[in-house]
Amino acid sequence: MRFLVGITGASGVVYGVRLVERLLDEGRDVDVIVSAAARRVFAVELDRPGDPRTWLRGRSGRAPAFHDDADLAALPASGSSTADAMLVVPCSMGTVARIAAGVSGTLIERAADVILKERRPLVLVPRETPLSTLHLRNLLELSKLGARIVPAMPAFYFGPKDIEDLLEFVVDRALQAAGSGLPLRHPWTGVPDGEP
User: pTM above 0.90?
Assistant: First the structure.
């Protein structure tokens, strides 16, 4: 199974980085598209300026295949060559709106359009708060079209020890929604005996 990951300029680009790392470390084929806005957020939130092609790797050292977000002739722009599933992590509300409207001004937007028309899994991980009525309307429209919406909302029932646990929770839920078949690292195991 080949995965296409779009990383847009919403806050929370670390979710996209951890998702790419997990897929690569699990031996999956991964293509990545990074928007210009995401590059700016990498510099601010991760102190990683410059081209992510030079540093975005799996923890194992494997690298994904990269596509330029401005290249509308790249493989993900065609239904005959696109991935088996696409995840946009994080997904800005501007990207949500353009995908919902069928606007294909960038490769991320065009690839999402292709995934929808081919009826393959499209998972969006919005990272915005609060959500306006317009945001909710656009997310609802995409859900009706078959996209899976996995908000970046970590759970706390498993007793996370650090931020990595919280990141893993969201990444795992997004990968589960995409049909990756990868195991959840923090599944619900029920309430221990003797507790309410």
Answer: yes
Length of the chain: 196
Q: Within a domain: residue 66?
A: yes
What is the four-CA torsion angle of 90, 92, 98, 99, rounded to 10 degrees? 20
Helices (H), 26-177: 36-45, 93-101, 107-117, 133-144, 163-177
The runs of H, that is alpha helices, within the chain are: 13-25, 36-45, 93-101, 107-117, 133-144, 163-177
DSSP 61: S
* Cβ proximity of 59 and 27 under 8 Å: no
- Exposure string over 148-174, b if 16+ CB within 10 A, otherwise e: bbbbbebeeebebeeeebbbbbbbbbb
Tell me how many domains the chain contains. Answer: 1
Dump pLDDT digits (tens) for 83-142: 999 999 999 999 999 999 999 999 999 999 999 999 999 999 999 999 999 999 999 999
Q: For the chain, give percent helix, strand, coil, nearest 5.
A: 40, 15, 45
Q: Are the CB atoms for 55 and 63 separated by under 8 Å? A: no
Q: What's the domain range around 41?
A: 2-177
Query: Is 195 domain-assigned?
Result: no
Sign for the CA dihedral angle at 105, 108, 111, 115 comes to negative
- Hey, is 136 helix, strand or coil? helix
Domain membership of residue 108 (yes or no) is yes
